[in-house]
Amino acid sequence: MSTLTFLGAVGEVTGSRYLIEVDGTNPDTFDDEEGARGGSAASHRLLLECGIHQGGSDAERVNAEPFGRLVETLDEVVISHAHLDHCGLLPKLVREGYRGPIHCTLGSKALLEITLKDAAFIMAKDVEWENRWRNRAGKPRIQPLYDIDDVDRTLDLCQTHHFGQPATLAGGVKLVYHDAGHILGSAIVELAIPSGGRTRRLVFSGDLGNPESALMKDPESQRDADLVLLESTYGDRDHRPLKETIEEFAQILEEAFEEGGNVLIPAFAIGRTQEILYHLSMLYHQGRLRQQRIFLDSPMAIRVTELYERRRSTLDPADLHALNVAAHGDPEQYLPGLRLTRSVEESMAINRIRGGAIIIAGAGMCNGGRILHHFLYNLERSSTRVVIVGFQAADTNGRRLVDGAGHLKVLGKDLNVRAHVHTIGGFSAHAGQADLIAWAGAFRGRPRFYLVHGEPGAQRALQKALAITGIDAEIPVYRQRIEL
Questions:
Q1: Domains contained in the chain, CATH given
Q2: Cα–chain center distance at 312
Q3: Which is nearest to 301 in space by CA: 268, 278, 275?
Q4: What span, in angstroms and rounded, lies between the C-alpha atoms of 191 and 169?
């Protein structure tokens, strides 16, 4: 029998990784330390996702663990989309010797070039600073998980596929991608896997999009599966309706303007930033945006926004039509007050400007990036608004703000949080609980469901809600191995 082993995104949102072994092998030969099989090897091994862990006290250690013999025995890799928690360790896999194909959609390949190079750049800078301290302290130097050369080798291995285009992988596995509606190129992964003389159909939801999100099309429903891996990031709640969300956002912007304060929006560079810019544009054309200065202060988010513009044909035509009509067909009028700050000098200059600006700056969970420098200048001002528009993993600065922290240590300084912190879940690019249940309910028959990509409370809530509809779902544990 073919098997699947859960190697990540179990009991947490990040670190996605699942090992599929076609035709199975002796379970007694499982190497617990290295995550590979010794002894009598399976016919073929596929890795579904290769994500980085974000947040949590053990993330740095877990990310640094070597892949071991998995690198030598792995045949192919399949990626659902280009968020780092799904793909961020690909260059490390390649650095350690993997040279097989990496399957993804066309949109994901374009984003991978941006996200992985940005990650490598940030790692290099972080390691440079760390090694300066280590040199002074007489401690051994450290190396980054990977560098730009590793990223280039990774991109060379990518094989791209259109939605709905079947592809044959190692061991006779058939791969088909379906639109997940989450970010550009995001996919639901369908794998038809030979197992025990039959074909078993595994469907991995990836990250399902929020049907109310602007720009992206709705996630495609799936009908047939023997086993479903279902994300559960927001398994414990529904998002606020988009209309109410926009009204809340507009009110926050108005209050900040009246008090002369800046609005800080931690930027999730892929997807969320582009959605926020869309809604700011629509508010502007409705005469409801009084701020005249909007800064997109994230080089990565700028590159992604430009990519979205080039890939307009893959986005939701209804939303693009509405924006085009509002701006009278002139792209320069979509959001006239928008300023793209690419350089460090341009970013620093923002904090010399008096209040009344909207600053969208990386990174989304506030654990690094330019948003921290804007915190230094704005977080202790009661006129400031911090608008959280995406999921904040445990032990991140963003999560501390959401949980009401009165103090925040930023770049070595202990800041009093006097700014108003607003969490606007309606802008989420993830499906809410009701959306997840509806997507799961579209399957015919009784496939086996496993809940992944969620914190324990969210997973238990979704498990209970699914049970009410007659769907029994299991919550897997790390390294659990199941037969297909």
A1: 3-237+433-483 (3.60.15.10), 242-427 (3.40.50.10890)
A2: 21
A3: 268
A4: 9
* 3-state per-residue secondary structure call for 1-64: CCEEEEEECCCCCCCCEEEEEECCCCHHHEECCCCEECCCCCCEEEEECCCCCCCCCCHHHHHH
Report residue 311: phi and psi, to 5°: -105, 30
User: Rounded to whole angstroms, how far apart are CA atoms 198 and 213?
Assistant: 39
- Ramachandran category for residue 163: left, alpha or beta (phi over 0 → left; psi -120 to 50 → alpha): beta
Give the rounded percent of residues in the chain with a pLDDT score beyond 70: 96
pLDDT for 355-405, tens place per residue? 899 999 988 999 888 999 999 999 999 999 999 998 888 889 999 999 999
Residue 72: both structure tokens together: 């030598």
Q: Are 104 and 79 in contact (CB under 8 A)?
A: yes
**And the tokens for 105?**
């959609």
Classify strands 407-410 and 385-388 as parallel, antiparallel or unpaired.
unpaired
Strand 481-483 to 187-195 pairing: unpaired
Provide the mean pLDDT of the chain. Answer: 93
**How many Cβ atoms are within 10 Å of 138's Cβ, its own excluded?**
6
> pTM, whole model, 2 decimals?
0.90
Q: Order the strands of the 293-297 sheet from edge to edge.
A: 338-340, 293-297, 357-361, 263-266, 385-388, 420-423
